[in-house]
Design a protein that fits this description.
With 83 residues, this protein is mainly α. The chain has one domain (3-77). The protein contains 2 helices and 2 strands; from the N terminus they run αββα. β1 and β2 (40-43) form a beta hairpin. α1 (3-32) packs antiparallel against α2 (48-77). The protein is rod-shaped.
């Protein structure tokens, strides 16, 4: 197993992990109305700026996971990955 294959597989796995985890977190935050971060919990009604910032961070992390996943797939399926 080459280093290119291992790094591509790691990008795919990490991308799937972050995409699923952060998407579920964002959905849970909107449903419950409480944004949770490492700095605390923010309710939608009482602290809307902090809540939406936490929600936006979750969405951006999920998008980063999608980018990792797509770049890992491109490395796996692109030319020269089998060497």
């Amino acid at each position: 197993m080459s280093n290119e294959f291992a790094s591509a597989a790691l990008l795919v796995a990490g991308g799937v992990f972050f995409t699923v985890r952060c998407t579920r977190s964002a959905i849970r935050e909107v449903r419950t109305g409480v944004g949770r971060s490492r700095f605390g919990e923010y309710e939608r009604e009482s602290e809307p700026l902090q809540f939406w910032a936490t929600f936006a961070g979750s969405i951006l992390a999920a998008l980063l996971g999608v980018i990792f996943f797509c770049s890992g797939l491109a490395m796996l399926l692109g030319p020269g990955w089998h060497r």
